[in-house]
């Protein structure tokens, strides 16, 4: 599981937001839901109470077999009815109002004052005006099928929110005197009330806005308060601790460290101050020991440099001085080989010539490696065609290979010009070719490959020898390290200087040299040379 990254300040603020914001949000959201439920509960209770009053009024009028009103009074105007009963009296003609007519008159009074509106709706009304609408049909169906006592919904009427409430009307004995087709105890219709509730919705919206503002203010205040406390008690001391730690890493060791904010942080400061003092003492003691050791190492280094210089000078001088007597010995040996005719003496002279060549080769290698390490060699860089150079070396080395029954193969890829010291690069290729011939079994093949890379050439010498173990592939390019040779029972062959000289020459040209396994058996020695810009 990956650890969360970021500063402690960022993590703390994120934790506060993730904890406080949802918690307070849930609290205020629940408060808003409760207020909304209470508001709608009051609307429903208001509708229930109003419905109960109207039904009681209807019941009283029904029990009284109607109410007689003068036709010329305001209360008798605008109502109308499906039929009328008139009663002449000394005060004028009175008209009997049925429960339905009384309900309609009360609804007109309420509607004129913009309070609410209600009406009767019957299943089989005598008055066509009392036919139920869609809402009332759904209410009557609900009352008949599930015996519900109320049915309500929220609707939109000309852009105004209206709360529609309906209660069932049951048939009793008094209703049967007028409504002959009804059955006592059944649902004859419903009383529907339309209450304007736009003010309720506006009030709820205003309340929600106030709750949101209060919640936002409380969240911001809580986050800022907690952030200030933690910053003062934790973050600032930690920042001071970081500054002190960086100072200690730069060698500044304060004696007294005061964080402030809390006793715990002050105790941490005291412990850090004590540690700082001990580190200062340890540093001073270590610096003194390092200074003494450095002085001793400097003296030893100077002695080693002197010895190395003397060694190089000795080897260079000795190898140079050995060349003259060796040349004289070779001249005398050549004279004896031409003049002596006895076969036994010719054998001894051949042995002497072979060992003399080895000695000359050894002296030459020592002379070259000492001059390279002493940086006293003179490099003669110039453009050279590597294909032509390799071809000439193959031609020169072919007789030596044929003596060991080996074949040399080189397919020229065309001109490849590099800036090289021709003599030294020829020395590298000859050395690698000589090793390949030395270690390859009779009847084998030594091949040469030139490859063009990005800004460089690769020259490869591939043999079919015993190969070189992976753990020895880097060491063979060091001085005096030899690899097991072919045909000598695993005993090292050579002086161990040839590949070291090759490595130094290649590096001086800005290239690389390495060895790897040959898929066909044996080894592949590869070195690179920078290509000329025009190539």
TrEMBL record:
A Gene Ontology molecular function term of the record: phosphorelay sensor kinase activity
Enzyme Commission number(s): 2.7.13.3
Record PROSITE patterns: HAMP, HIS_KIN
InterPro entries associated with the record: HAMP_dom, HATPase_C_sf, HATPase_dom, His_kinase_dom, HisK_dim/P_dom, HisK_dim/P_sf, Sensor_HK_Regulatory, Sig_transdc_His_kin-like_C
Keyword annotations of the record: Coiled coil, Kinase, Membrane, Phosphoprotein, Transferase, Transmembrane, Transmembrane helix, Two-component regulatory system
Domain of life of the native organism: Bacteria
Location of the HAMP domain: 232-284
Subcellular localization: Membrane
Record's GO cellular component terms: membrane
Pfam families membership: HAMP, HATPase_c, HisKA, Tll0287-like
Transmembrane segments: 12-30
Catalytic activity: ATP + protein L-histidine = ADP + protein N-phospho-L-histidine
Histidine kinase domain segment(s): 317-533
Protein name in UniProt: histidine kinase
């Amino acid at each position: 599981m990956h650890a969360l990254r970021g500063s402690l300040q960022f993590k703390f603020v994120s934790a506060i937001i993730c904890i406080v914001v949802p918690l307070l949000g849930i609290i205020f959201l629940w408060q808003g839901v409760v207020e909304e439920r209470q508001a709608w509960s009051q609307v429903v209770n208001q509708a229930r109470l109003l419905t109960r009053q109207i039904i009681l009024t209807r019941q009283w009028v029904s029990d009284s077999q109607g109410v007689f009103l003068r036709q010329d009074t305001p209360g008798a105007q605008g109502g109308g009815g499906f039929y009328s009963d008139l009663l002449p009296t000394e005060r004028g003609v009175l008209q009997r109002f049925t429960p339905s007519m009384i309900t309609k008159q009360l609804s007109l009074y309420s509607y004129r004052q913009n309070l609410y509106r209600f009406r009767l709706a019957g299943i089989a009304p005598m008055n066509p005006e009392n036919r139920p609408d869609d809402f009332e049909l759904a209410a009557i169906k609900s009352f008949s099928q599930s015996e519900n006592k109320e049915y309500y919904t929220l609707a939109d009427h000309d852009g105004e929110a209206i709360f529609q409430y309906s209660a069932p009307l049951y048939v009793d004995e008094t209703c049967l005197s007028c409504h002959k087709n009804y059955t006592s105890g059944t649902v004859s219709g419903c009383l529907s009330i339309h209450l304007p509730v736009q003010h309720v919705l506006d009030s709820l919206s205003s309340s929600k806005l106030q709750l949101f503002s209060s919640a936002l203010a409380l969240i911001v205040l809580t986050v800022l308060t907690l952030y200030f406390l933690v910053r003062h008690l934790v973050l600032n001391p930690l920042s001071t601790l970081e500054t002190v730690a960086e100072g200690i890493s730069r060698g500044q060791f304060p004696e007294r460290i005061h964080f402030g904010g809390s006793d715990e942080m002050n105790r941490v400061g005291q412990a850090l101050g004590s540690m700082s003092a001990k580190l200062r003492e340890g540093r001073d003691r270590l610096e003194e020991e390092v200074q003494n050791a450095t002085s001793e190492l400097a003296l030893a280094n100077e002695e080693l440099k002197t010895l190395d210089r003397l060694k190089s000078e000795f080897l260079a001088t000795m190898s140079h001085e050995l060349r003259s007597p060796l040349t004289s010995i070779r001249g005398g040996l050549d004279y004896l080989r031409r003049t002596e005719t006895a076969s036994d003496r010719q054998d001894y002279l051949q042995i002497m010539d072979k060992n003399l060549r080895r000695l000359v080769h050894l002296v030459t290698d020592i002379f070259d490696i000492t001059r390279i390490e002493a940086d006293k060699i003179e490099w003669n860089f110039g453009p050279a065609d590597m294909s032509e150079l390799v071809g000439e070396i193959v031609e020169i080395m072919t007789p030596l290979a044929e003596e060991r029954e080996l074949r040399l193969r080189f397919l020229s890829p065309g001109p490849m010009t590099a800036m090289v010291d021709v003599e030294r690069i020829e020395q590298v290729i000859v050395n690698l070719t000589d090793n390949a011939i030395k270690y390859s079994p009779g009847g084998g093949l030594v091949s040469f490959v030139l490859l063009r890379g990005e800004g460089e050439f690769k020259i490869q010498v591939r043999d079919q020898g015993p190969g070189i173990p992976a753990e020895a592939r880097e060491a063979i390019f060091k001085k005096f390290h030899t690899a097991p040779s072919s045909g000598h029972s695993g005993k090292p062959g050579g002086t161990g200087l040839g590949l070291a000289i090759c490595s130094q020459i290649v590096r001086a040209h800005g290239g690389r040299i390495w060895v790897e396994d040959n898929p066909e058996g044996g080894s592949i020695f590869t070195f690179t040379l920078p290509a000329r810009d025009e190539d």
